[in-house]
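FW: tagging you since you asked about this chain on Friday. Here's the raw sequence from the shared folder, copied in full. Didn't touch anything.
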Amino acid sequence: EQAKVNAARALANLAFNNEGNSVAIVEAGGHVGLIQLLRSDTATEQAKEHAARALANLAFNNEGNREAIMEAGGYVALAQLCNDETVTGKIRILAFRSIYLLSKSRQNDVRRLSVGVHKFIIKVLAKEIDLGELNSQIQENLVEVLAEFSVVKVNENQLIKDGAHIVFVNLLNDENVTEDARKHAVRGLWRLSFCSSEHIVKVGGHIALIRLLNSETVTEGMKELAAGVLERLAYDDDENKLAIMEAGGHIALTQLLNSETATDDAKVNAAGVFVHLAWNEDHILGIMETGVHIALIRLLNSKTATEDAKANAAVVVTYIFDNKEARMAIMEAGGITALETIFNKEGVGEELKENVADALKAIRSAIAKQEVVVPMQEVKPEKKEEKRSQISWKPLMSFGK
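HL: got it, structure written out here
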């Protein structure tokens, strides 16, 4: 047995930070022997520790080695070691380190959930398994792999069942986690929101995301991601929309639209959330109290905002205009001028043009029915009206990202 310990240690040392040695070891079938050692019922913990370390060194930054280890069943063997409660926490962490590196393989490993790695990660992050003090790098790796599992569509329901969304939300609420760990958690929630958004809201995911939007310490990129998840949570779910409103999400999102430092995609996502909120007429007056209509029209007038952001803004303006009590605010904020400027501009994309056309159609219809008074500054020359009467109006086709 000591010979196996020595051999595994030697392979680990030879493979460490040496790609030439690593390739040679795999070509000679060394990885197969290491995997067999992990599976052995008689191998000592020391032998398994060195074997796990050796596999991690072989898998480091070498796609060919990763694929060879995967094909030889290394992933399954390492997963079993992660879930083995009879070995030390150190060995289980080393096994996970190899799992982390193998997860970067190009192989489509849908079977990963069937070997229980996700359950191990969830229990570690939920502090149900004591592996000793975890450094920030290991924690980031754990969250990243769990988020990667959520990318595989067939895994989503099982991840929700096993509580991955709870772990992600708890990480967002933990002030001690790193920015990268938080980023992976948000990414995991975004993916899971496609199948189970209501579960995320039930455990307070929307509140954690809104807290990120209100934070003065997180990056603008993080706020962009948070707004993207909120857009998914608000999509076609009335209870989720109400929860977001009650938690002050509309206030935080309006502030994001008004921010001079927010990323372009953050504003696309924020306007996208308002598309879903404003679809419910009951929410319109509530979101109007934040001054969102002014922010949206400012977005439409912006020379730097993306067409995606403007397309979403135009949809929200259309929905707001469906509420008779809110119409005058759009008119007084210069809504017609902003929309017509975009509509008459050359080179505007088809989606933005269609959304603006729908907004203008709603406004023109209300004016024709004398349901709204046009402010003096919004009155246009007759020539413009003649040109507009020739427009072939199309129904709204896109609701943004």
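FW: Residues 59 and 66 are 5 Å apart (CA to CA).
HL: agreed, and The first helix runs from residue 2 to 15.
FW: great, closing this out.
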